[in-house]
Amino acid sequence: MIPFNRPFTIENELEYIKDTIDKGILSGDGYYSLKCHKFLEKKLNCKKALLTHSCTAALEMAAILLDIKPGDEIIMPSYTFVSTANAFVLRGGIPVFVDIRKDTLNIDENLIEQAITDKTKAICVVHYAGVACEMDKIIEIAKEHNLKVVEDAAQALGSYYKNKPLGTIGDLGCFSFHETKNVISGEGGALIVNNSEYTERAEIIREKGTNRSKFFRGEIDKYSWVDIGSSFLPSDMVAAYLYSQLENMDKINHKRMYIWHKYDEIFSNYDNKIRRPFIPQNCRHNAHMYYVLFKNLDKRTKFIDYMKSNGINPVFHYIPLHSSPAGKKYGRVSGNMNVTNQVSDCLVRMPMYYDINDTDLDFIKSAIKNYFTN
Prior knowledge:
Blueprint: H1 13-23, H2 31-44, E1 48-52, H3 55-65, E2 73-77, H4 82-89, E3 94-98, E4 120-126, H5 135-144, E5 148-152, E6 160-161, E7 164-165, E8 172-176, E9 189-193, H6 199-206, H7 212-216, H8 236-247, H9 249-267, E10 283-284, E11 291-293, H10 297-309, H11 325-330, E12 332-333, H12 338-346, E13 347-349, H13 358-373
Parallel strand pairs: 2-3, 2-4, 3-12, 4-5, 5-8
Antiparallel strand pairs: 1-9, 6-7, 6-10, 8-9, 11-13
């Protein structure tokens, strides 16, 4: 069986977990949490990196930092995971869904302005499959209309837009270390603070609304409750696992890129039947995902069923948020959703994880050839 995903260890995960137990601090912001913060700040050249227990938590922190209030509108794609919208809905915000581009499957930057109203507070972009949105245009629109920009970069650690790391271009960036991502810790995430006006408050919100971080740095003699917040910290054992993965991030992404190109070579033989991913010249992606688009739902379903009958487990992706019960209740649509609806029916993701080997890929290649031949 070749599953869609398989979690993995790469080097020192178990050693670091044991070390954090030996150090006697398992709660948040221990030895390995701080090492992860420093690693990300250096790697991304960002003002502040803070580990969270999920990308969902990082997005929820972003919504609090932007001071989202009931009735505030946040423009975003509908083709994304529920957390992108839910983080703002929890604050009373209204997701405003716009369609995606046919080529990158990212939010269509040319549809954003028509979705802006006097209630619009922010734009939340999603870098689908680790491929960058058209950030220059989006930042330009945000500045013109005095809006904040949040990057949902859950899939995009190690990806770049014009040589700038994704997650570091907007006011705030959010990463995921879920077991399906490139760099993993089971569950886990990070908030990247690029706008210095949010740096101090981000620490407070993450620490249950207290100034505890200042206390541990010796900046104050006691800490207290000073703001709203929650317990957004991961255990230091999670951070220990993550730190080993971060140390090997380039190695992991290099292997995934090898797998990505193998898939691209395989599917290039069937361009009359499917559409392969498009990577703009100004983007450098991290090989988070390899997907293809079939011509309709029936063809996609038959392909998935055939692969599964041969022990290979490709999967489809998002059900668009605008068509979901909660999306209809809490959000609204700007314009039509033609591309989003079509992509949702036609997209299939191939198995992608670090331990896939050439034998696996040859087996997948043979099954794909047999499917299209027959």
